[in-house]
Amino acid sequence: MPMIPEAMIAMLACARIGAPHSVVFGGFSSESLKDRLIDGNAKFIITADGGFRKDKVIELKKAVDSAIDSGAGDVVNKVIVIKRTNKEILMKVNRDYWWHELLENQDDWCEPEIMNSEDRLFVLYTSGSTGKPKGVVHTIAGYNLWTHLTFKWIFDVKSDDIYWCTADVGWITGHSYIVYGPLSNGSTTLMYEGVPRPSNLGAFWQIIQKYKVSIFYTAPTAIRSFMKSGREIPDKYDLSSLRLLGTVGEPINPEAWIWYRDVIGKNECPIVDTWWQTETGGVMISPLPGAVDTKPGSATLPLPGIEVEIVNKEGERVEINEGGYLIIRKPWPGMMRTIHGNSQRFLESYWDFIPHKEEPFVYFAGDGARIDNDGYVWIMGRVDDVISVSGHRLGTMEIESALVSHESVAEAAVVGKKDELKGEAIVAFVSLEKNFKNSDQLVDEIKLHVVSEIGVIAKPEKIIITDSLPKTRSGKIMRRILRSLASGEKVSGDISTLEDSSVLEKLKEDS
Ligand code: 7RM
Fold first, then answer.
1. Ranges of the chain whose pLDDT falls below 50
2. Geometric angle at alpha carbon 85, from 79 and 90, rounded to 5°
3. Are strands 308-311 and 324-328 parallel, antiparallel or unpaired?
4. CA 216 to centroid of ligand 1, rounded, Å
């Protein structure tokens, strides 16, 4: 589905009749769609004739057709199609139906199905470390309670707020904080089909000005790209309606945090850096605006009821400021209930991974973090993103943050490469700000900058300058790919979530 109101309407319609939904992001290939349809045993598909993305038409119905033809036809019976682009598409008799035609004969009222609290609300697929996506199962009562409460606490909504989350409904952030959290609070939630693109770099600021958005929730990757294109663009718009800013999806480097606060928030809006996952359903660690002092780059404190601890492999609590595994000691309402069709994998990858002295099971989030003197949590990235150089643990994020704080660096991704002496050596992929040119001298200067920011142990052995980094459609850098490139190995495994596959070819040339 494109980012149109019908996407949200379709989700809520499923919820109303008690049919679990599984939203598949419109940018996925038909191959990925097929896998999800089959794994989820989907009976119906709701799609559109197409959608718009960056001045291009995405042929959604075509992807659905080929998913069905290549195997999903064994499970799927019916397809409902929304008219969006008006492009000609194939409609198969007795299988495909137009949404607007079906609506003509419907009552205005649909009796809601009474559900049990632990019944399924939805399954959402997310990538794990193995490459085979996991169907994360969320339930009616717990998920709704958690998204309702966290939305209320974190965004401190008032009845006249206009709230905008820029995520796609196809991701958990869209589920929890475009649809369920805001709507269960009776809030006004803004949904936007477009994205900033070369033909309209100010698209977001235009929307904020036009609709007087008061709460804006976006991702660090977006903020860094706004930074890259310069403050002249947002400066042209009236952003005075804003009163609260949020970020989610990856660690935010202090430089981007400060830019967000100064340039977008005019130093008047609190920033909520919200840490959570598809698996947690809703936010787990975040400041409450006005109540918790913030520190640029920290998601601050766990929310009420959430017990966070940083431990080592043996499940022992580490020292203050020492990096370790982020675990959650007690269950919470919004937690995922299982992996669809694989409860064993659910147990093993989340609850049976790290032992604990006082709890029978603790939830392991897959992230590394440290807790400082004030009890503030600093997310260091996925644990597979932690590099060990001569026995020193370094978050790739820590190094990336140092890199992007150099004036020439727009974006950076750091991976570890096997090293005989040090265990691992640091390789950094870097894209430059538009006024800088690649040279040996600049590379040396950037290396020294990292040394002065963190220390000599963090000095990248190699810096590869490249135009763009390989990202998933939700903006996460695919380090697995960079790791293979850095160590001169063949890139293998699932690359279906890569936003732009041509990036891979360019990177191979650069590295
Ligand atoms: C909401 C979402 C989850 C992973 C998680 C982290 C990273 C998310 C933050 C963050 C640092 C944050 N769900 N992550 N939020 N890291 N600070 N505020 O993104 O399932 O798609 O990803 O994202 O590594 O494990 S997700």
1. 131
2. 40
3. antiparallel
4. 18
Q: Look at residue 392 in the predicted model and tell me its pLDDT.
A: 65
Q: Which amino acid is at 107?
A: D
What pLDDT is stored for residue 507 in this prediction?
82
Residue of 166, 276, 284, 326 with the most ligand 1 atoms within 8 Å of its CB, for mutation = 276
Kindly give the distance from the C-alpha atom of residue 109 to the centroid of ligand 1, in angstroms, as a whole number.
Answer: 38
Among the listed residues 280, 261, 279, 278, the one whose alpha carbon sits nearest the alpha carbon of residue 269: 261
Quickly count: other Cβ atoms within 10 Å of residue 304's Cβ: 9
Our answer on whether the CB atom of 274 is closer than 6 Å to any ligand 1 atom is: yes
Q: Separation of 376 CA from ligand 1 center, angstroms?
A: 17
Measured CA to CA, the distance from residue 146 to residue 305 in angstroms comes to 11
pLDDT of residue 128: 58
pLDDT of 183-240, one tens digit each?
999 999 999 998 888 888 999 999 999 999 999 999 888 898 899 889 999 999 999 9
**Helix (H/G/I), strand (E/B), else coil: 38:** helix
**Hey, what domains does the chain have and what are their CATH numbers?**
1-107 (no CATH), 117-306 (3.40.50.12780), 308-382 (2.30.38.10), 386-510 (3.30.300.30)
H or E stretch at 58 = strand 56-58
Q: Which atom of ligand 1 is nearest to the CA of 126?
A: 20
CB of residue 297 inside a 6 A radius of ligand 1: no
Output the CA 248–ligand 1 centroid distance in Å. Answer: 6
| Distance from residue 437's CA to the centre of ligand 1 (Å) | 32
Q: How far is CA 90 from CA 52, 57, 80, 101, 239, in A?
A: 19, 16, 12, 16, 44
Classify the phi-psi angles of 423: left when phi > 0, otherwise alpha if psi is within -120 to 50, otherwise beta.
left
- The rounded distance, in Å, linking the Cα atoms of 43 and 37 is 8
Contact 72, 44 (CB under 8 A): no
Residue 385 near ligand 1, beta carbon < 6 Å: no
> CB burial class (10 A; 0-12, 13-18, 19+) of residue 296?
middle
Q: How far is the CA of 70 from the centre of ligand 1 (A)?
A: 33
249 lines ligand 1 (CB under 6 A): yes
Q: Find out whether 499 and 476 touch, Cβ atoms under 8 Å.
A: no
Element (H, E) at 120: strand 120-126
